[in-house]
Write a structure and sequence with these properties.
Layout lengths: L1 H83 L1 H15 L3 H8 L3 H15 L1
Helix pairs in contact: 2-3, 2-4, 3-4
Length: 130
């Protein structure tokens, strides 16, 4: 009887091992499907987030371009205002005259500015020269 069992033992062990491998394969396949589903869901979520981020970035980029355009326009207007400002021309002329050695009275007469303004321009130019 032991002779019969001992000759069947390798077949029984092989059959059991193959059965266990088959069950393990089924479990791994089920786990693989779950993981694939999770990966697919995560990819869809990341895709939506990426799309939202890209859309937001484009909106911010358009705002930046608009702000840069407005800033450029404002700088042009400011430069134009500075060039057309009659008082600035007087102060620039007064500053140039101070560099040439003009006194307060000369500044008042030549540039048409008041005494405190002439004193201020003179003091500022002398300070910058020092």
């Amino acid at each position: 009887m032991f002779a019969d069992i001992s000759s069947l033992a390798p077949w029984l062990l092989t059959t059991c091992a193959l059965g266990l491998l088959f069950v393990q394969g089924l479990l791994l396949r089920r786990e693989n499907r779950k993981l694939k589903a999770q990966i697919k869901e995560r990819c869809e979520i990341l895709g939506r987030e990426l799309h939202a981020t890209a859309s937001g970035s484009m909106g911010v980029g358009q705002r930046v371009v608009t702000c840069e355009r407005q800033l450029h326009e404002l700088r042009g207007m400011l430069d134009e205002m500075r060039q057309n400002d009659p008082l600035r021309i007087s102060y620039d002329e007064a500053s140039r005259l101070v560099d040439l050695g003009a006194d307060i009275e000369d500044l008042m007469d030549t540039c048409g500015i008041s005494r405190p303004e002439a004193e201020l321009v003179s003091a500022l130019r002398k300070r910058q020269a020092a």
